[in-house]
Amino acid sequence: MKKGIFLILASILIFSYTDTYAQEAYSTPSVYKVTINRFRLSSDGGVTWITVSDSSTEFDIASVNAGAAVGNFFGGSIQAGTYDRYERTVSATFKMQGFMLNAVGVNDYYTSTTAANGTNFTANFDQNNPPADYGEATITIFGYNQGDSLPAEQEIVNIALQSGATKKVNIDFNVTNTLALYNIGGGAYQLMPAAPRVTVTIE
Question: How do the domains of the chain map onto residue ranges?
Fold first, then answer.
């Protein structure tokens, strides 16, 4: 059976801000929501495109059923044909939940529902009795505003889809240590998403 392996979301968070600020600590989030604003495929190297979706679709890739959700999104409405390129446009705003203990000295940092850009800290975070503002935070990537999209990214692939054929899509998301804390200067720190490791196989 022919199998193609390609990355869909693995590189969406690797861009210039990672070189601008120092990363202080990492932890594994319980919620990691990413929104795909557009996804399209090309069979001629990007000269023309077939749009799979141009409506915003949110996925919690930390969820146990994330693979099935994304597999349904990418596998349910694609026309038969051979595709050599795909393009994705992703929102610059993410939703995350998590915390890290002793991230900076004795300070524990956590995602906040009320603090600026979703970041707050305390000296005694207790996950069994967390602060009142602990929860799913809305975090926008450095240099962007809520409502912005990241620049569209393209990947070269080799996908052959036959009419009436059934393909099994296996998607594995690894979000270990993808909640990152950055030192943004002046004694301030900011939580940001780091890139997940994503493997997609189509059989």
Answer: 4-196
Give the pLDDT confidence of 98-155 residue by residue, as tens digits: 999 999 999 999 999 999 899 999 999 999 999 999 999 999 998 899 999 988 888 8
Tokens standing for residue 27: 């932890």
Cα–chain-centroid distance for residue 44? 28
**Token duo for residue 5:** 């392996």
> Do the beta carbons of residue 182 and residue 23 sit within 8 Å?
yes
Burial of 18 (0-12, 13-18, 19+ CB in 10 A): middle
Residue 23 is encoded by which pair of tokens? 């990363």
Given a contact cutoff of 8 angstroms between Cβ atoms, the answer to whether 88 and 34 are in contact is no
CA distance 172 to 201: 9
What is the distance between the alpha carbons of residues 134 and 182, in angstroms, rounded to a whole number?
19
Q: List all residues 6 or more positions away from 195 whose beta carbon is below 8 Å from its beta carbon.
A: 10, 11, 12, 13, 14, 178
Cα separation, 195 vs 203, whole angstroms: 25
